[in-house]
Design goal:
The chain is an alpha/beta fold. It contains 14 helices and 21 strands. The protein has helices at 12-23, 60-63, 131-141, 158-167, 195-210, 268-273, 312-329, 337-360, 367-370, 385-393, 399-406, 419-430, 437-440, 450-454, and strands at 2-8, 28-31, 70-73, 77-84, 87-93, 99-109, 113-115, 128-130, 148-153, 171-177, 215-217, 219-225, 232-237, 250-253, 256-260, 263-265, 277-279, 285-287, 300-302, 376-378, 383-384.
Length: 460
């Protein structure tokens, strides 16, 4: 299959890129792992289950794709990409484990992000979930994660998770935010891009107030307790210095803990294509993109959370710019100059808001000092903080070396869950700058059958 543009990811960024490129006359392939478009943010219910109108955004952008110029490939898991002077190639596994190869003049990669997690005692108990996982159950299937849920971590995402649970009959025993919204007073540069977010946050606040959900600022999740499942959560105040006041910890009974500490961009495909990266405001590794969303690889464009986590609106704006630039580079019609200018201006405001958001809602540094040696860091390989620290004492100066000595990050998730925490802990113990590059790259972005590899012509 050969196209002018291949878009990977059917979330807000990918949908916008595909729609704009197709409207400009380009032949477009839109490929996504999910069975329905929308990504994590515009998530739909599973087939056969009616979706409430307020559970997903209108995906009008997707319906604008011209059927003669666009092909939508749902249920296809992309496991690697490559790019060269003449174009790019996407390798995927489709339904029935069939291998699929797509060639295109230009690739627009919009893989999104996933929940960032930090370890704490008991986080491997049944009932401890990511905030995104709890939200996915609710949006995708209309399922409450449990009768009582405690939402904890940091960032604006905690509010819609808690409000969604409360609005659908769940009991939210509390929202524990490690930071304070007062931090926005020190970030006036981010205000212009957050006007719409303020109204959105006010709506969530009204829902929580109506359902009498307690919201605690500067309160951090310390541990989960229970025998064979979560029975309670321990929370403690966070001081202005980010340190957790364990002496004032208290216990709250709950059945589920929804923990979220922001998001980590998915960079596997960009690294496979050889795109340049750099640390973002929150320390996350992000792909570098220019004013048209082109990466350092001239046939690869980036859009969405991979360029820096900033929400669905920013992702859609970047997607539109990337789709326009890709269509133009492939010899087709881009957006009008005035439309591109407006999108760039809006992107600048939204990125300013995103930078401010990262500064207002950092992961509190105190967790590094309160992580006990017995705390499991890598759940796949059952590597504790003590074993990871032993690796640094044996000479591991960075997270990659510590990974090789301890096996942290070598399990099923390939450091997607533990990579952030492992990199932070190693940097803390060695006194070196935080560097996530040692756990960001993966040879394969998704599991792939051996026969798919064996069938490739370049495998001898």
């Amino acid at each position: 299959m050969s196209y002018d543009v291949c878009v990977v990811g059917a979330g807000p960024a990918g949908l916008a890129a595909a729609a704009v490129a197709a409207r400009g006359g380009a032949a477009v392939a839109l490929i996504d792992a999910a069975p329905r478009p929308g990504g994590q943010f515009w998530r739909h219910r599973a087939a056969g289950i009616a979706a409430d109108a307020d559970l997903h955004h209108d995906i009008e952008l997707f319906t604008r794709l011209h059927p003669a110029r666009a092909r939508y490939l749902p249920g296809h898991q992309v496991w690697t990409v490559s790019a060269g002077p003449a174009g790019g190639t996407v390798q995927a596994v489709g339904p029935g484990q069939a291998g699929v190869t797509i060639d295109a003049q230009y690739l627009v990669l919009a893989p999104g992000a996933y929940d960032r997690q930090i370890p704490f005692p008991g986080w491997d108990l049944p009932g401890v979930m990511t905030a995104g996982g709890v939200q996915a159950l609710l949006k995708g299937h209309g399922v409450l994660a449990g009768p009582r849920v405690l939402v904890a971590g940091t960032g604006p995402f905690l509010l819609p998770v808690a409000a969604g649970l409360a609005a659908r009959g769940g009991t939210v025993v509390g929202v524990h935010e490690a930071n304070s919204p007062a931090g926005w007073l020190r970030q006036p540069a981010g205000w212009p891009g957050g006007a719409g977010k303020l109204a959105e946050a006010a709506g969530y606040a009204r829902t929580l107030l109506r359902h009498r959900v307690p919201v605690r600022q500067r309160s951090a999740l310390v541990s989960a307790e229970g025998r064979d499942h979560v029975e309670s959560a321990v929370v403690a105040p966070v001081g202005p210095d980010g340190r957790i006041r364990l002496a004032r910890a208290r216990r709250i009974e709950t059945d589920v803990i929804a923990a979220g500490w922001g998001f980590t961009p998915q960079l596997e495909l960009f690294l496979a294509a050889g795109c340049d990266t750099a640390p973002d405001t929150d320390g996350s590794l992000v792909v570098l993109a220019d004013h048209d969303q082109f990466t350092s690889q001239p046939r690869v464009l980036a859009a969405g959370e991979a360029t820096g986590v900033g929400g669905a609106t920013l992702a859609a704006v970047e997607g539109a710019l990337a789709g326009s630039a890709a269509a133009a580079a492939a010899g087709h019609r881009p957006l009008r100059p005035e439309a591109v200018t407006r999108l760039r201006q809006r992107r600048a405001r939204l990125r300013g808001f995103a930078r401010a958001m990262h500064r207002v809602y950092p992961v509190p540094a105190g967790w590094l000092d309160t992580t006990a040696c017995s705390t499991v860091v890598c759940r796949c390989e059952e590597v504790t903080a003590g074993q990871l620290r032993e690796a640094t004492e044996l000479g591991a100066a960075d997270v990659r070396a510590a990974k090789l000595l301890s096996r942290a990050g070598m399990g099923w998730c390939q450091a997607r869950v533990c990579g952030y925490a492992a990199a932070c802990l190693v940097a803390h113990w060695t006194g070196r700058p935080y560097d996530p590059s040692g756990v960001a790259g993966r040879p394969l972005a998704a599991p792939v059958p051996l026969h798919t590899l064996a069938d490739r012509p370049d495998v001898g």
